[in-house]
Amino acid sequence: MALEGTVNLLLWSAVVKLLVISIASIVVYTAALSLYRLVFSPLAGFPGPKIAAVTGWYEFYHDVFHSGTYIFRVEEMHQRYGPVVRVNPHELSINDPDFYNELYVGGSKRRTDSYSHFAQGLGFEVLQDTVVKLMKRLEALKGTSTILRLDHVFNAFTGSVISRLCCGAELATDNILQAKRDKETHITTGLSEDDRGSLFHYIVSSSSMPVSEQSTERLAKEAQVLLGAGTASTARTLDVTVYYILANQHVRARIMEELAAPMSNFPDVIPSLATLRSSPYLQAVIKEGLRYVSDVCASWGRLT
Question: Is residue 236 a contact partner of residue 217, using CB atoms and an 8 Å limit?
Fold first, then answer.
């Protein structure tokens, strides 16, 4: 019995020592990490609450236990500390419109050569064709007292546009496989002003993306993301914008007055993109629609 008691005592002693060493190690590690984040981190010189600089649990607490209110806490930080605030150990929040073009840079400040063709946008003729098809469908229902849901209408419209941009007239996987076959036989899709081909033809045949990242499975998953994002968010913007145009008679009357001349012979004569861009009230309505509709509320992060 005495021997058994001695063994148990030694075991408990070893457990206590291990526990003490573990706790001491955690304390030392936490202290060292906090010191690094507060003093030696590249972000150490930026203002903000010290607790936010030390640990991400501060953000976690507000988002999880206070129903995602950290965004409002960040706004309070900006009011107190200024336009640049450290919001967690690894991130800064910048609230300065004058700094926008420095933060979200264009091709002159970072590598975007491979994207240059598609940065010009999809050929306007593709949009024209899709709009004309939509208008004909709507005209066919005129006078029938049919009730249309704008969300369904615009989801179908934007789905057609983004599908044409990403995959042409094919399914995503078929388009990717065809692009790879074209590359193997040295056939590349010409990217003229009027026809830029499909996005995945361009990625496979002309972009600088490493071949190791061009697996069919990976590109197919990218296509799913693009098709989903390019359909729902754009359709929602059109849906809400058109609703408010129809709901506000003075807005509707003014925009119809401005477009009366350029759209007088539509669809036989379609106004050019330059003409539409030079219509100030139309452009104002588009920008207001983009401002008003917020499908995704999140910070737009950049890694530097």
Answer: no
User: CA 136, CA 125: separation in Å to the nearest integer?
Assistant: 17
Pair of tokens at residue 256: 């119809």
Distances (CA, A) of 138 to 8, 144, 164, 291: 85, 11, 21, 27
* Average pLDDT of the segment spanning 100-129: 57
Helix (H) or strand (E) holding 94: strand 91-94
Average pLDDT, the chain: 81
pLDDT digits (tens, 9 = 90+) for 48-64: 999 999 999 999 999 89
Which residues does 262 contact at the CB level (< 8 Å), separation at least 6? Answer: 271, 275, 276, 279
pLDDT of residue 227: 83
C-alpha to C-alpha distance for 91 and 56, rounded to whole angstroms: 10
